[in-house]
Amino acid sequence: MLTRVRPTILSVLRNEDLKEMLESNKESLKLEAMKRVVGLIAKGKNASELFPAVVKNVANKNIELKKLVYVYLVRYAEEQQDLALLSISTFQRALKDPNQFIRASALRVLSSIRVPIIVPIMMLAIKESAADMSPYVRKTSAHAIQKLYSLDPDQKEQLIEVIEKLLKDKSTLVAGSVVMAFEEVCPDRIDLIHKNYRKLCNLLVDVEEWGQVVIISMLTRYARTQFISPWKESGDATSFSQSLSEKKDQMEAKTYIMDPDHRLLLRNTKPLLQSRNTAVVMSVAQLYWHLAPKHEVTIVTKSLVRLLRSHREVQYIVLQNIATMSIQRKGMFEPFMKSFYVRSTDSTHIKTLKLEILTNLANEANISTILREFQTYVKSQDKAFAAATIQAIGRCATNISEVTDTCLNGLVLLLSNRDETVVAESVVVIKKLLQTQPTQHSEIIKHMAKLFDNITVPMARASILWLMGEYCERVPKIAPDVLRKMAKTFTAEEDIVKLQIVNLAAKLYLTNSKQTKLLTQYILNLGKYDQNYDIRDRTRFIRQLIVPSEKSGALNKYARRILLAPKPAPVLESAFKDRDRYQLGTLSHSLNTKASGYQELSDWPAVAPDQSVRNVEVIEPVRNLPSSPTSYHRYNSYMPDSTVTQRCYSKSGSESEEESSEESEKTSSDSGKSSSGSEQESSSESESQQKKKKKTKKAPQKKSKPAAADRYSEIPPVRWTLRASFFFPVNLACPDVTTPSFGPVKTYELLHHMTGKGLSAKYHFPRQPCLYQPSMVAVQVVLTNSSDHSLEEIHIGDRNPASLNLHCFNTIERLEPEASVTVSMGIDFSDSTQAANFQLCTKDDQFSVSIQPAVGELFMPITMTEQDFSKEQGKLLGMNETSETIAMATANTSSQAISKQVLSVANVGVVSSTQNDIHRFAGRTVSSGALVLVSLEMKESSSALLTINTEKSVMASMLLRDLKQALAQA
Amino acid sequence: MIHSLFLVNASGDIFLEKHWKSVVSRSVCDYFFEAQERATEPENVPPVIPTPHHYLISVLRHRIYFVAVIQSEVPPLFVIEFLHRVVDTFQDYFGVCTEAAIKDNVVVVYELLEEMLDNGFPLATESNILKELIKPPTILRTMVNTITGSTNVGEQLPTGQLSVVPWRRTGVKYTNNEAYFDVVEEIDAIIDKSGSTITAEIQGVIDACVKLTGMPDLTLSFMNPRLLDDVSFHPCVRFKRWEAERILSFIPPDGNFRLLSYHVSSQNLVAIPVYVKHNISFREGSSQGRFDLTLGPKQTMGKAVESVLVSSQLPRGVLNANLNPSQGTYTFDPVTKMLTWDVGKINPQKLPSLKGTMSLQAGASKPDENPTINIQLKIQQMAISGLKVNRLDMYGEKYKPFKGIKYMTKAGKFQVRT
């Protein structure tokens, strides 16, 4: 009693302490207490008593404390529903927080609290977050959908609406999560996928790896319902009788043309075979297995074999899948046969799977190699594995008739093995083999009879007895003798052996009753009083069957035909034979039973459903500039063509020249397209030119461009148009903007040549998206040398504030007198007009300079429809709206003039308008991506109402001032 | 997807549990313990175990079982890969992934697990993102935190989450800019009794340690890229560029990462660096066995073979071994029957050998199989396939980084059958 009470007293005390700490005023104490509480939860101890004390801290400012409270809440809210409600308002408030991370974590916790009362609140939060500006919050809302669905399945219809909306999302961040939600909530609503199919295929490479797995398995299912079979031999096994329809099939197969969407899926998943994530590789492999034309499936082989190098658990799953595949398609894995050789360090289930695969791969050509390998395995110290090998040999022997005799002889040799399990397994396998061709093997049976006394494993003894009985006419002298021995030891045998003794006795009685009549009766009498009722039953049955009496009647005549009927040989087949009814790579496949929630893969439709459902007509406005179009992998192939990078590529080439010149000289000969060679020539050429002519640097620079471009000559010119659409998505989509935004650019002075000791610098904003980072503003600086000597090592030195995020240009080694050079920089102003201060250095001097951006340069134009504009404007009211009535200069009343003036001030895009008197412009701040909406409503007598809607109210008022000034000027 | 996670140590205690959905009672692990009891070796526990209401998927690393509880259909590799990623993250954070380390850092572990999965679906697994969210514990930081009351937990959304290069954090700064690449190749081979090669292949990886300021864009090219037959990349590598030009072009993550793993095409003959002369025999009826092993260098291209370690599982009948090594030390564990011989460096002039007798159980019959010999070795400054990095260039940043490339060859699963 005492011992049981003590711990509870202790824990009460501990809880009291913790409660006190949680309720204290000191942050550090609270945090310490929460850490201990989390420690308790981790150990699985009950800490629910502390709920009231913990929940009070939910609104604490300390982020770590808050997170730990969240952990606690999610764990215990289900048990303490009433108290949990106290925290809800905090989350609701946090859902409106300007920090996207706070919004997302609030939604995460709110949706993880499994309290049915708050279902409506959750629903509302999910709907709002699904339309959030931040893709991260939208991703979180996709996760929340699943949580709400598991809490209250009645919300299904509403949730499907949200899923439908999120499926349209173009962000790679959201794609994986929303497809997961789709799979969980409404996997049967294939119709929702149609319009998004192509988009998903195209985004796939850039989606994070876990999302890729989910999307690929969903698309596999989708494709099986929407496309017709690419397999020419479709239905070969199913309809032999219907030769007519088969012919029809062949006709169709000849004219088969793959749906371009089907091809798109196969093409876009192929690169993922190179993923480091084994789950992704496996899912692509299963996609190819289930969807690709037969001859294309082989491309997955190499990658699957590569996975065998991974952890033990990965090997296990991959080998299972290969085992299933290798039954149907031997050729796929045959070249890699040696990868499945067993090593002594493999764990037992890996060994068995490898054996399975080797057996599946065996054919006439390679059987001798495989059998030699098997011989080594039979000697293995792992006896279970040795036994499995013997079975494998048996399977090879039945499958390949050429080696049956060799295998049999080999197995007979094993009968003299010292290990019982090996011998027993050999006997069992020999028995099966003999059954398939019993004619010429009486020698083997005799041999086994001789060994009989030494074999103790019941199964093996039973097998030998069965063989004796079955072929007793072939060994007429030995069989009765064996029976005689067995009669002596009958009582000491195992049940399974006893049954076979009775069997043998019965068969001998029928064929050779003269010699065995008495023996049989003796055995039957022993069996009659056996302890096991199965044996008693069998004895009674056999006696009635074979010994003629009045009661037995007609059955007696047929005893011989019943007992000695020719028996069909057992078929030795793979345990993986029927596993292909499950989709590869699934849990169900691995377990060979249907797991809950398993989605059947449907058969190919006979007639392809309507293809046009996947057509997308409406080109929707680009909503998320920072995340969606700047796809990394697509981005890369265009990057080398851009003028800016060209410059730094050629620069760095000459820079690295000294260190690598020796090496590159050597290598340029053997690697034809090695860039260094050509680059080096051009840059050294340009240097000599500089020396001779002392001209401006512009000429040699132009020279170096084609040299750099040479390296990428493989890239077809088509890319140029693609590139353009990437860098100027806005301008292409909305031609209105193109002209003004390329209008005269204002140039500002960075460094005067008097203060710069001859070095002068000017800068302007090219108004292009920055290459280096999307949050940076691109700045172009023109450096000119106005002195009479050349300047060396021009570069950027210290910056102020030190945290300033700046992308420097590459060091300019040398600038000749009167020469000038244009360089690009990127500066992250973090949406403020605070000046970026840094030092411009030459070899000898340092000059402090600063770039102060006009507020209008901190924007990026975006395209929008008028409806979207009004919708977004509707969301940014109240605090987020700044407006003023302004006076307009008379010259500025035409819409063209207004656009020109506004665009000269701010880098925004024109929104095409149906109303003549309202002009709209839309943009986004570069760093945080906040929307900025400018609208100008013309009033009578050259006055107008200027309204700016944005979250960034400081920027709004500054922009308002600038615009007011510009519009008032003529 | 993943419902709960239990961490089980070698002695079968659950020392940590974490639930992402409703709480699953820890009694579900009883099915796991049952399977564990049935398995003779720790490695023989099946990775997937069905129970009446759940499925248990487990991985074994560092003698800890990570048991995930699943309720419905999910690709098993998805879970396995994720669990391994969890272990890698722990290792990255705490240096080692042991029971003690996890218990000491239980709060950080919990915070990490909370960020890695949301509702059982992976949310952030990229090490660079996690490190921005939760800073790894160091002694200095713990002290500073206790004094100033600041926390280990980030308040902002990690920049990587929204960027097109999610694996790299922004604002990276180093005073010494360095990039190191280790080309490590492993030979997997099975050598048969007579010394001929049954199967041999080379698998390689390039591990990188990149400490570079800003957003460097690196390209790495090989002298002989054709050697690489099958490759898998870190997500940062631009696949199209590789397809077209066989150049690795990438913006690297910050810190340590595996850039590439590859398989050398099987057409090339694999050089086997060592040979083994062995004579292990048991005589019928006698309680003695002879053991004689000599190692020698074979195709090493003039490089020294170092850190050689020979191990062999002797037959169960062997009671003890009385051996005499010409160099190095050997140990024999009479319980597991494991013989290990730490050879060290092979001197071609004086070949290392291990000779002596084994005593067998009296009356036991002669073991019918000779033991397999596993060999580990290292060869510095050489990649056995002949792979060579041509050059490494950096674009996008102006400083000159220090670049280093190291080659090494190891024996992977190198077995000699006797």
From TrEMBL, chain A:
> Which SUPFAM superfamilies does this UniProt record tie to the protein?
ARM repeat (SSF48371)
Q: Where is the composition biased (Low complexity)?
A: 669-687
Show the Pfam families listed in the entry: Adaptin_N, AP3B1_C, AP3B1_C_2
Q: Which residues form the Beta-adaptin appendage C-terminal subdomain domain?
A: 858-968
The record, for SMART domains, names: AP3B1_C, B2-adapt-app_C
Regions of biased composition (Polar residues) lie at: 625-649
Q: Pinpoint the AP-3 complex subunit beta C-terminal domain residues.
A: 702-834
GO cellular component term of the entry, any: clathrin-coated vesicle membrane
Cite the Gene3D superfamilies for this sequence.
Leucine-rich Repeat Variant
Question: Where, subcellularly, is it found?
Answer: Cytoplasmic vesicle, Clathrin-coated vesicle membrane; Golgi apparatus
Locations of Basic residues compositional bias?
691-705
| Renumbered residue ranges of the record's region Disordered | 624-711
Q: How does it sit in the membrane?
A: Peripheral membrane protein
| Keywords tagged on the record | Cytoplasmic vesicle, Golgi apparatus, Membrane, Phosphoprotein, Protein transport, Transport
| Key word Signal present | no
Database matches in InterPro entries = AP3_beta, AP3B1/2_C, AP3B_C, AP_beta, ARM-like, ARM-type_fold, B-adaptin_app_sub_C, Clathrin/coatomer_adapt-like_N
GO biological process, any: vesicle-mediated transport
Give the PANTHER family listed for this entry: ADAPTOR COMPLEX SUBUNIT BETA FAMILY MEMBER
Q: Which family does it belong to?
A: Belongs to the adaptor complexes large subunit family.
Please describe what this protein does: Subunit of non-clathrin- and clathrin-associated adaptor protein complex 3 (AP-3) that plays a role in protein sorting in the late-Golgi/trans-Golgi network (TGN) and/or endosomes. The AP complexes mediate both the recruitment of clathrin to membranes and the recognition of sorting signals within the cytosolic tails of transmembrane cargo molecules. AP-3 appears to be involved in the sorting of a subset of transmembrane proteins targeted to lysosomes and lysosome-related organelles.
Name of the protein in question: AP-3 complex subunit beta
Tell me the organism. Answer: Scophthalmus maximus
UniProtKB/TrEMBL annotation, chain B:
Location comes to:
Golgi apparatus; Cytoplasmic vesicle membrane
Domain (MHD) spans 176-417
Name the domain of life.
Eukaryota
Keyword set, alphabetical order: Cytoplasmic vesicle, Golgi apparatus, Membrane, Protein transport, Transport
The record gives the membrane topology as: Peripheral membrane protein
Q: Which GO terms describe its biological process?
A: intracellular protein transport; vesicle-mediated transport
The record ties this protein, via InterPro entries, to:
Adaptor_comp_med_subunit, AP2_Mu_C_sf, AP_mu_sigma_su, Clathrin_mu, Clathrin_mu_CS, Longin-like_dom_sf, MHD
GO CC list:
clathrin adaptor complex; cytoplasmic vesicle membrane; Golgi apparatus
One Pfam match, given by its short name, reads: Clat_adaptor_s
- Answer whether the UniProt record assigns the keyword Transport to this protein: yes
Family to which the UniProt record says this protein belongs: Belongs to the adaptor complexes medium subunit family.
What is the name listed in the Swiss-Prot or TrEMBL entry for this protein? AP-3 complex subunit mu-2
The taxonomy runs: Eukaryota, Metazoa, Chordata, Craniata, Vertebrata
Q: Which gene encodes it?
A: ap3m2
